[in-house]
């Protein structure tokens, strides 16, 4: 059947540079620079060292963004992560207070997170027809419920053995450990999603699950892995929250799932699945972190910051739509 | 001038970069059935959309009963008595038949919907069409044929004088098509003019009195159906002569490759056994819903059979997932290209390499350079009409999409190739090419299972024909003894008794 027509099909890709400049990530980089310039003018205290000093409390939830991006690319959603953060912080604080070696505390956080994530993954892959939004809404209530039962009537727990926790807030020079770990994990997550066969399959599932299944992709296995990793990352987040506040309470991690989703969507990852990449999500996370630090330095109320983020998010989602409409209007 | 109920002159429609219609013309006589034929991409659908006001032509004029009309949108066309029924009914599956029929032009009295009246009206229309269901039935529970009937009823409810049927028989079985022919005849008697788009010559000969052919966005000609031969018509459509539609090569049949024994899945099929040999094309046919697709999907690990054994080259194998089937060389080309075969928004190259990315990957990371080379090679091997490997699969015509599905299969190490309705919705020219590929594969020694509802295709390509009905194998015929009538008999008659046992 060797090409009767002898037709040749081009397989040389477009120059990557041109593609990048026009992409959403390109716009986000510009926005990140603008936000930093704005913050520097707005707050006299805003500079690199103050940024590095005040950043860690906002960085913890960025760990949630990394696996959340995978879940959104799958075309799904996990709104239970805030509760997993609360449960892991609570449980590891209890273990910490028993005087156990710090490595045990870390393992507790990761293990509790992994189990919670695996529960989500198990339910969703065992009963494939269930909508992830509803399943994780249920587990959101259950996980936080367990944390509340454990926390008892006081509703909070304080770390009495803070030796190990202080370790986590350490720095190399001016750079906090948490930023190091975050950057390392971010690179790994971004490369796996963008360049590995695993990542390609995630996009395949998110774009057309049926075709992926027919093409031999282990759809349910991949979904299970991702939900479990989501739990593990929630454990990391919970651990850092514990180390920065020396305790946990019933509101720990509340609303984090929405922050993570917002960062991802702002970063160009479509909530309908199959589109976007982690680079965009990570840049948008840093835009939000810088904005929070800068505005926080002038004592702008946290609610006002949220309001600004909300407006930004709507703009980000609506922009491609507006551009598309404008283009069509011009053509006519 | 008013010889024609509808006349279009010099229609040109330009989409960014392409002329979808180039100075085409068309005349419809009152009360005639006029077939519109041409390959995929010839501009038929665009033309229909110009008539129904969905698209606005850049140039050209349209006359309705001699009067010049200018539709601003689909509503104008509807008001003027033009209605279109599409291949895949675009209905609301959770609503009732009556609700679907009156969607958009409900009967209202003092601001209240008059369901009783609408149900009665709907029933009247359905009776007119000899429908065997009620206006209160839920749309989603009906078969495709019945849903089309509802669409036709909907067209009638708007008092349409011109009804356009866009590939109505593509998703229908033979018997259902007969039913549709009857309805079209009836509409004709009532003075409705009909434009009929189809790839099936059978439809045209049975229904139409005249046929207009488009090719490459241009008008080729209008012919009397009685005055044109099959070959001339194909030549008009394709622009060249197709010497042999079914290039079935003489292949020496080799050893047994795949054997399925007593395959059963409750509610779908029961005690199905068959075998395929190297170099052999086995046709698996029957009416839609006979369980053909279900059987092969169970063989390929997409669903689980309740019982039964599968042997590959004499060895019993156990397949639980599609990837296990692929590893063993059993490759399925699924029935629904757009939902199961391809990721439509992805580039062709990525589609081709999806099942095999791990093979080229270096420690888990994509080797994109190798993927690009391989996909180019395979897409050229099946002669895909594409510009580059990055264009989305959705930009290709049905026939070329099917070729991409074939290329995707070729990227794997195949032993048994299962093609489920490989030419559904594919035009004549591309059909011949797909048959040629199929013949080549057989010649290379692959065992091929061809599932098809199209009788000529089965008779033309298969060495051996297995007929199923209601989830049971009702017969097996050799190429020599198979006839259209023989197959139909097996596909329908025995089913009446056997059906109840299988379900």
Task: Give a nutshell description of this structure.
The complex is a heterodimer of chains A (332) and B (503). Chain A is mostly helical.
Written overview of the protein:
The complex is a heterodimer of chains A (332) and B (503). Chain A is mainly α and 332 residues long. In chain A, strands 1-4 form a two-stranded antiparallel ribbon. In chain A, strands 2-3 form a two-stranded antiparallel sheet. In chain A, helix 5 crosses helix 14, helix 14 crosses helix 15 and helix 14 packs parallel to helix 16. Chain A is globular, with a radius of gyration of 22 Å. The relative contact order of chain A is 0.18. Chain B has 503 residues and is α/β, with parallel strands linked by helices. Chain B has three domains: 233 residues, Rossmann fold; 164 residues, P-loop containing nucleotide triphosphate hydrolases (Rossmann fold, 3-Layer(aba) Sandwich), CATH 3.40.50.300; 67 residues, no CATH class. In chain B, 35% of the residues lie in helices and 25% in strands. Chain B contains 19 helices and 22 strands. In chain B, the strands form five sheets. Chain B has a six-stranded mixed sheet, sandwiched between helices. A six-stranded mixed sheet of chain B has the order 18-19-20-15-21-22, with helices on both faces. Chain B has a four-stranded antiparallel sheet with strand order 2-1-4-5, with helices on one face. In chain B, strand 21 and strand 22 form a beta hairpin. In chain B, helix 4 packs across helix 5. The termini of chain B are far apart. At the A-B interface, helix 11 and helix 12 of A face helix 10, helix 11, helix 12, helix 14 and helix 16 of B.
């Amino acid at each position: 059947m060797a090409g009767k027509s002898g037709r040749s099909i081009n397989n040389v890709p477009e120059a990557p540079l041109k593609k990048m400049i026009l992409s959403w990530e390109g716009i986000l980089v510009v926005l990140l620079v603008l936000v930093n310039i704005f913050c520097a003018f707005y707050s006299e205290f805003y500079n690199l060292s103050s940024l590095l000093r005040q950043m860690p409390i906002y960085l913890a939830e960025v760990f949630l963004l990394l696996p959340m991006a995978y879940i959104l690319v799958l075309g799904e959603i996990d709104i239970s992560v805030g509760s997993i953060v609360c449960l892991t912080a609570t449980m590891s604080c209890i273990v910490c207070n028993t005087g156990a070696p710090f490595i045990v505390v870390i393992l507790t956080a990761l293990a509790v997170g992994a189990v919670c994530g695996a529960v989500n993954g198990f339910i969703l892959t065992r009963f494939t027809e269930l909508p992830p939004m509803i399943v994780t809404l249920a587990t959101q209530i259950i996980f936080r419920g367990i944390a509340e039962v454990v926390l008892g009537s006081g509703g909070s727990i304080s770390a009495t053995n803070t030796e190990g926790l202080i370790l986590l807030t350490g720095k190399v020079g001016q750079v906090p450990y948490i930023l190091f770990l975050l950057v390392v994990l971010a690179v790994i997550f971004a490369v796996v999603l963008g360049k590995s066969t695993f990542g390609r399959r995630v996009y395949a599932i998110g774009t057309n699950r049926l075709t992926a299944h027919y093409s031999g992709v282990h759809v349910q296995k991949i979904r299970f892995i991702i939900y479990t990793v989501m739990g593990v990352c929630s454990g990391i987040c919970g651990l850092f929250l514990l180390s920065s506040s020396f305790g946990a309470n019933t509101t720990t991690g509340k609303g984090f799932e929405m922050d993570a989703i917002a960062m991802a969507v702002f970063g160009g990852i479509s909530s309908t699945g199959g589109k976007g990449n982690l680079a965009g999500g990570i840049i948008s996370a840093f835009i939000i972190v810088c904005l929070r630090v800068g505005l926080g330095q002038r004592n702008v109320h946290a609610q006002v910051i949220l309001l600004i983020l909300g407006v930004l998010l709507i703009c980000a989602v609506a922009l491609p739509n507006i551009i598309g409409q404008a283009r069509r209007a011009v053509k006519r | 001038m008013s010889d024609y109920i509808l006349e279009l002159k010099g229609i040109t429609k330009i989409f960014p970069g392409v002329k979808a219609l180039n100075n085409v013309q068309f005349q419809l006589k009152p009360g005639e059935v006029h077939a519109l034929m041409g390959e995929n991409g010839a501009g038929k659908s665009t033309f229909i959309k110009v008539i129904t006001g969905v698209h606005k032509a850049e140039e050209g004029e349209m006359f309705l009963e001699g009067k010049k009309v200018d539709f601003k949108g689909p509503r104008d066309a509807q008001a003027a008595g033009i209605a279109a029924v599409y291949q895949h009914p675009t209905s609301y599956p959770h609503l009732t038949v009556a609700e679907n029929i009156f969607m958009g032009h409900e009967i209202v009295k003092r601001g209240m919907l008059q369901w009783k009246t609408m149900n009665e009206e709907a029933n009247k229309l359905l009776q007119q069409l000899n429908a065997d269901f009620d206006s209160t039935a839920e749309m989603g529970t009906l078969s495709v044929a019945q849903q089309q009937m509802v669409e036709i009823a909907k067209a009638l409810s708007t008092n349409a004088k011109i009804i356009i049927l866009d590939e109505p028989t593509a998703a229908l079985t033979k018997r259902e098509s007969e039913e549709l022919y009857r309805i079209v005849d009836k509409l004709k008697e009532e003075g409705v003019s009909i434009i009929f788009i189809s790839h099936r010559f059978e439809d045209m000969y049975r229904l139409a009195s005249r046929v207009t052919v488009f090719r490459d966005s241009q008008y080729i000609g209008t012919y009397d159906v009685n005055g044109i031969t099959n070959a001339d018509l194909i030549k008009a459509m394709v622009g060249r002569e197709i010497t042999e539609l079914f290039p079935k090569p003489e292949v020496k049949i080799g050893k047994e490759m795949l054997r399925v024994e007593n395959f059963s899945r409750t509610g779908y099929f029961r005690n199905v056994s068959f075998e395929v040999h190297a170099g052999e094309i086995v046709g698996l046919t029957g009416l839609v819903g006979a369980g053909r697709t279900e059987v092969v999907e169970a063989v390929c690990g997409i669903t689980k059979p309740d019982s039964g054994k599968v042997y590959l080259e004499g060895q019993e194998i156990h397949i639980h997932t599609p990837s296990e089937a692929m590893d063993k060389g059993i490759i399925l080309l699924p029935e629904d290209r757009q939902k199961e075969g391809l990721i439509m928004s992805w580039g062709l190259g990525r589609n081709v390499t999806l099942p095999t990315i791990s093979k080229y990957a270096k420690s888990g990371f994509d080797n994109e350079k190798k993927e690009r080379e391989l996909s180019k090679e395979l897409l050229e091997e099946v002669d895909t009409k594409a510009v580059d490997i990055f264009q989305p699969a959705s930009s290709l015509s049905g026939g070329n999409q099917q070729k991409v599905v074939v290329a995707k299969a070729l990227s794997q190490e195949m032993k048994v190739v299962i093609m489920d309705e490989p030419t559904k919705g594919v035009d004549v020219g591309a059909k011949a090419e797909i048959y040629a590929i199929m013949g080549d594969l057989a010649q290379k020694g692959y065992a091929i299972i061809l599932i098809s509802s199209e009788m000529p295709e089965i008779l033309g390509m298969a060495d051996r024909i297995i007929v199923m009905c209601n989830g049971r194998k009702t017969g097996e015929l050799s190429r020599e003894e198979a006839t259209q009538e023989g197959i139909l008999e097996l596909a329908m008659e025995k089913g009446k008794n056997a059906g109840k046992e299988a379900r």
